[in-house]
From TrEMBL:
Gene (UniProt): htpX
Protein's UniProt name: Protease HtpX homolog
Cofactor note: Binds 1 zinc ion per subunit.
EC top class named in words: hydrolase
Keyword Hydrolase carried by entry: yes
Entry membrane topology: Multi-pass membrane protein
EC number of the protein: 3.4.24.-
Residue span, Peptidase M48 domain: 76-291
Main location: membrane
Protein's organism: Streptomyces pactum
Alphabetized UniProt keyword annotations: Cell membrane, Hydrolase, Membrane, Metal-binding, Metalloprotease, Protease, Transmembrane, Transmembrane helix, Zinc
Matches recorded under InterPro entries: HtpX_protease, Pept_M48_protease_HtpX, Peptidase_M48
Cofactor(s) demanded: Zn(2+)
Localization per Swiss-Prot or TrEMBL: Cell membrane
């Protein structure tokens, strides 16, 4: 990755390499199984898989921004937000990403983009309204560290396989891939095997992305706290954002839940299985780490 003043994290780098290797292997196996199952339809399967992969990688920033309602803003439209990003980028010695705002009361922020030049950092109106300037800078530093460490791109690619599995399953079942086969028990077997394979692929990719996501959030907290030198401001922002989530209408939280892996804090609509498979570590874990960093900085 391009050098910045964000603290490097070898643990994160190792996990990203391992996740990408396993996801890539799973991707190849998945396409291979589909080619075997669908017989003469394999050229179309490979074409669809390749086209979707390229589209997801090259247009991930636009897809994510559109999905989460982000709109790019100028310094005149959002001077405080741009000012905070300018200061942090100068402090981190990194290129300034595009800056966006999402018009929602859910207090959150996210970053996306396959590299630093294509990156976009977005804050919601609900977040900017609730946080003090130093707290907002802590959150933005957290998001910028994702860009600097390139784990945003890795998460985008890793989450792609689950989307691909569902898409190809629907195309295979309803697009007529089985029409060329004998109309006997083989067709019925295909109708059962394809969803089963897709479900297994989705489950494995889901677990891999969740394990990486939890670690990368702790890594981003650490990097942001060390860069700004104010872990208490980030801890305060975390406490505020997490506390305010309970006051957000359930409908809004459910709309945000599919994108939790990219958000600063998870939007959860209740105490459910979603918490067990959360994309983020618990608030207690994050605050405990920030407390230790604060002690270390005080000693230094």
């Amino acid at each position: 990755m391009a050098r910045t003043r964000f603290a490097p994290d070898r643990g994160l780098a190792g996990r990203m390499v391992g996740t990408m290797f396993l996801i890539g292997l799973l991707y190849v196996v998945f396409v291979g199984v589909l080619v075997v199952l669908l017989g003469n339809s394999w050229p179309l399967i490979v074409l669809i898989a390749g086209a979707m992969f390229v589209a997801q990688f090259w247009f991930s920033d636009r897809i994510a921004a559109f999905s989460m309602g982000a709109r790019e803003v100028t310094p005149e439209q959002a001077p405080e937000l741009h000012g905070a990003v300018d200061r942090l980028c100068a402090l981190a010695d990194m290129p300034k990403p595009r800056v966006a705002v999402a018009d929602t009361d859910v207090p959150n922020a996210f970053a996306t983009g396959r590299n630093q030049r294509r990156a976009l950092v977005c804050a919601t109106t609900g977040l900017m309204r609730r946080l003090e300037p130093d707290e907002l800078e802590g959150v933005l530093a957290h998001e910028l560290s994702h860009v600097a460490h390139r784990d945003v791109a890795v998460m985008t690619i890793a989450s792609f396989l689950g989307v691909l599995a569902g898409m190809i399953t629907r195309v295979a079942l309803w697009g007529g891939f089985t029409r060329g086969n004998n109309r006997d028990s083989n067709t019925a077997i295909l109708m059962l095997l394809i969803p089963l394979v897709s479900a297994v692929v989705y489950a494995i990719s889901f677990l891999l992305t969740r394990l990486l996501s939890r670690y990368r959030e702790l890594s981003a907290d650490r990097a942001a706290a060390l860069l700004t030198g104010r872990p208490s401001a980030l801890a305060s922002a975390l406490t505020k954002v997490t506390g305010q989530m309970a006051r957000i209408p359930t409908r809004d939280l459910r709309q945000a839940e599919p994108y939790n892996a990219f958000y600063f804090a998870p939007a959860l609509s209740g105490a459910s299985m979603a918490r067990l498979f959360s994309s983020h570590p618990t608030l207690e874990q994050r605050l405990d780490q920030l407390g230790r960093i604060s002690v270390q900085l005080g000693r230094g």
